[in-house]
Amino acid sequence: MSRNGDQLASSVLSARSWLLLTKDRHSLQHGGNDGYEEELGHNYRFDSTVPNHLELTLGDRILLWNGSILLGISRISDLTTRPSSKVRHRCPMCTATKIKPRKTLSPTYRCHGCRAEFDEPIREVLSIQEYLLEYSQHWSAFQGESSAQQIRGLAISSKSQHSMRELNSQKLNAFLTHLDIPIQ
């Protein structure tokens, strides 16, 4: 199912702003899932297990960052959803998803819940809704002079660990003005 066109024009008036975390699948620190295939400057993927997955809508302003620096800004121009499945990895001792792969030590994984070490996590297959945001139409790449602390401070809940965080519009507009980035 896709939403676009005339809906975008009317939704910009009631738009919210979001900070979206994007990571290369090969640089993930978290071992609980396999990440998402994304193309920076074009699309962003997430699923129904991600907090705030139902909150993003057409016309919403988005800032993409990698956890350290701001990568760019845009507006959501299309949002598509479809049924899919997802593999989640769990600790074989406590079943938590707080596991991380280790690069040099053996066993391969360590659980940051119970501290167990193991080579093979439990694989759980979930039925999910997969979401694809398109934003290339309004994309402005930006790698500015801003710290991770400044970027986190734009969120309504600045201590949030979520990969999709709602932003405080007044703080965001002041931030964009200070960096001389056009407010879209």
What does this structure look like?
The chain contains three helices and twelve strands. Helix content is 12%, strand content 34%. The strands form three sheets. The chain has a five-stranded mixed β-sheet. By secondary structure, it is mainly β. It has one domain (2-178): Roll (ph1033 like fold), CATH 3.10.590. The chain is globular and about 50 Å long.
Could you write a compact summary of the structure shown?
A hairpin with a 7-residue loop joins strand 7 and strand 8 (109-111). The chain has 184 residues and is mainly beta. Mean pLDDT is 86; it is low at 8-12 and 25-30.
Q: Oligomeric status of the shown chains?
A: single chain
- Mean pLDDT figure: 86
Number of structural units classed as domains: 1
Shape annotation: globular
Strand content: 25-35%
Number of helices: 3
Rg to the nearest angstrom?
18 Å
CATH architecture: Roll
List the secondary-structure elements in sequence, H or E.
Answer: EHEEEEEEEEEEHEH
